[in-house]
Specification:
The complex is a heterodimer of chains A (227) and B (244). Chain A has 227 residues and is mainly alpha-helical. Chain A is built from eleven helices and no strands. Chain A has helices at residues 2-7, 12-41, 47-59, 62-73, 78-87, 95-120, 123-131, 136-164, 168-174, 184-193, 197-222. In chain A, 38% of the residues are buried. Chain B has 244 residues and is α/β, with parallel strands linked by helices. Chain B is 41% helix and 23% strand. In chain B, helix 2 packs antiparallel against helix 10 and helix 3 packs parallel to helix 4.
């Protein structure tokens, strides 16, 4: 039976899951670093509220997130209608929809990790780099970012794992179209619904194995050297 | 503490004496059954109905995994047959009580008229039920295969978890067309229009049966019989269901 099962094993959902998770994590990383720095280092008015809004996807039910994306980007919405009319583009039933959902759920993790990592960087080192005639940008890239990097990387790995597991919002926005928008989590859901327990179990094992590997990696970076 | 015991002593006997019947029914029956439920309860003091609506295939899967269900109502014969073959259903209690028709729907204002129009480039997405677990999807597959459109339309198909999700996709205008039952199209008349009724298929009939493991077998039998009675039939007819 195992050989039989492997022969009908479809790698497309797993490949799509990785593609969605990688793109979403990169987007979340860029956004997370920028916002994390703003929240850790600036006194931007209303930043507490803004931070709370960015953290929302962590606690909101995925259905609320999915419904929100549908309301904002759906065909009948202003933005969705405009994109469709001018560019013939829509994220609904498109893998980009899954990327948006996954980015939103991954962002809070990167953001929290980045802002606490930035807060822990010794500001004297930045000041020293500034006295050596480095620009603000140059000190950020050559001093602040490298010092904060282990913390950011650990939270980014967690965010990647979270993006891989996104299900509810992606299902509402991108649907479960085999070969196009069906990620591993959706393929598992479909297999269970159709009574294909063997297929569901196999996919579940593969996803679990990948997730454990990522979490182990993430823990390694999170462990701080003891003084 | 005393109050807690007092509360428990009043609640526990109630739970023990109440006859609760769990009915797992096809999603397309949602509105009609919500109206039938209170009428059934009204004639049987102490009996309460609990409905669980989803795609028939999903419901059968839940029963197979041991969900405490008393009555199973499917939107097709195939799913009920699977239940009988797996010995999950008391076969002698099975009874057809309603009929329906497969229709092609489009958002209000659309110009789609027939199944052939789905192949045109203006149609980007067509919503269908998942054929493996959603009866309306299986009926759709049969219809499109007969029209030799199932394979060519593959890239456009969006698979839904149940018939009501297909209806929602069309009503929101996220897809250009979809396949549902006539009764589903009726309840969203303001948002969708029926482009055509799909003919030449085995008839859509709804069988109900008592689940083999039911602990309320007598009441479950009563409910299955009630569905064929005049009161329930009148409600079903009002929602557009036909005779089996």
């Amino acid at each position: 039976m195992p050989t039989d099962l492997w022969s009908q094993f479809d790698a497309a959902p797993l490949a799509l899951t990785l593609r969605v998770a990688i793109v979403a994590t990169v987007l979340a990383l860029l956004l997370g670093i920028a916002l994390g720095w703003v929240f850790a280092r600036t006194r931007l008015p209303g930043r507490n509220l803004l931070e709370a809004i960015c953290m929302l996807p962590l606690v909101l039910p995925p259905t609320v997130l999915g419904y929100g994306i549908l309301l904002l980007m759906g065909r009948r919405s202003a933005l969705g209608g405009w994109l469709r009319e001018h560019f013939d583009y829509t994220v609904i039933f498109h893998w980009h929809g899954a990327v948006i959902a996954s980015t939103l759920v991954a962002l809070p993790l990167v953001l929290k990790g980045a802002s606490s990592a930035f807060a822990q960087v010794d500001r004297n080192l930045e000041a020293a780099s500034r006295t050596l005639r480095q620009s603000r940008w140059s000190s950020f890239v050559r001093v602040t970012l490298p010092l904060a990097w282990p913390g950011i990387l650990a939270s980014t790995l967690l965010a990647f794992a979270r993006a891989m597991g996104e299900f509810g919002a992606s299902l509402m926005v991108a649907g479960s179209i085999p070969g196009q928008t069906q990620t591993a989590s959706m393929a598992i859901y479909d297999a269970v619904q159709a009574g294909r327990d063997d297929l569901a179990l196999m996919l579940a094992l593969v996803v679990s194995a990948v997730s454990v590997a990522i979490l182990v990696l993430s823990n390694r970076y999170l462990q701080r050297p003891t003084p | 503490m005393k109050r807690l015991l007092l509360t428990l002593s009043t609640v526990v006997p109630l739970l023990a004496s109440a006859q609760q019947l769990t009915v797992s029914a096809a999603a397309s029956l949602t509105d009609a059954f919500k109206e039938i439920g209170p009428r059934f309860e009204a004639g049987r003091p102490g009996a309460t109905l609990r409905f669980n609506f989803a795609a028939s295939g999903v419901l059968l899967q839940q029963i197979a995994q041991g969900a405490p269900v008393d009555v199973f109502v499917s939107a097709d014969q195939d799913t009920m047959n699977r239940g009988v073959n797996q010995k999950l259903i008391a076969a002698d209690t099975r009874r057809d009580f309603a009929g329906n028709a497969l229709v092609l729907i489009a958002p209000a204002g659309s110009h789609i008229k027939t199944v052939r129009d789905l192949a045109t480039p203006e149609v980007k997405h067509v919503a269908v039920g998942k054929p493996a677990s959603v009866p309306v999807g299986h009926y759709t597959l049969q219809a499109l295969e007969k029209a030799q459109l199932w394979t060519p339309l593959q890239p456009k198909l969006v698979f839904a978890d149940n018939v009501r999700q297909v209806l929602d996709y069309v009503a929101r205008g996220e897809v250009e067309a979809g396949f549902v039952y006539r009764t589903d199209a009726e309840i969203a008349k303001d948002k969708v229009r029926i482009a055509m009724t799909v003919g030449g298929l085995p008839p859509v009939t709804y069988p109900a049966a008592v689940v083999a493991d039911s602990r309320q077998a007598a009441l479950a039998r009563d409910f299955v019989g009630y569905l064929s009675g005049a009161e329930a039939q009148a409600i079903l007819a009002r929602y557009g269901f036909g005779k089996p």
